[in-house]
């Protein structure tokens, strides 16, 4: 990691998953500054803070039906700042879904599962 205290945004509508990922990342590297958001709409105004990495869930409307999905938020983030690395995190394991997120600017697509948190950590290390 090049930065001393990287700023990480986690955008997921499952608070337990956000908390678990945050705890995992802090246990691996205590120097992260982590902010969690339940919707992409809540995250977007904070993009001006230029986070070092955004971990973005593909489905963001399981709790709030009208919330934008991860692809729409990814497009918005990239329209605001193309340089922010976005890691998509999703239960979707379809290749087409992963390819679509990469096409819109995600640096990587991580399927939720047993090794997902470690993969996210390694990707954050590689991008900050």
Question: Could you characterize the architecture of this molecule?
Answer:
It is a single chain. With 128 residues, this protein is of the alpha/beta class. The chain has one domain: 3-Layer(aba) Sandwich (Rossmann fold). The chain has five helices and five strands, in the order E-H-E-H-E-H-E-H-E-H. It has helices at 15-28, 40-43, 70-80, 95-103, 116-127; strands spanning 7-11, 33-37, 53-57, 86-90, 108-111. A five-stranded parallel beta sheet has the order 2-1-3-4-5, with helices on both faces.
Index terms:
128 residues, alpha/beta, Rossmann fold, globular
Class from helix and strand fractions? alpha/beta
Overall spatial form: globular
Instruction: Tell me the total number of β-strands.
Output: 5
Beta-strand share of residues: 15-25%
Look at the structure and give the CATH class.
Alpha Beta
Examine the coordinates and then state which fold CATH places here, giving the name of the CATH topology: Rossmann fold
CATH architecture: 3-Layer(aba) Sandwich
Unreliable parts: none
Give the total of domains: 1
Task: Indicate the percent of residues in helices.
Answer: 25-40%
Largest sheet: 5 strands, parallel
What distance lies between the first and last C-alpha atoms, to the nearest angstrom?
5 Å
Write the H/E string, N to C: EHEHEHEHEH
The radius of gyration over CA amounts to 13 Å
Number of helices: 5
| CATH superfamily label | Response regulator
Mean pLDDT: 92
State the strand order across the main sheet.
Answer: 2-1-3-4-5
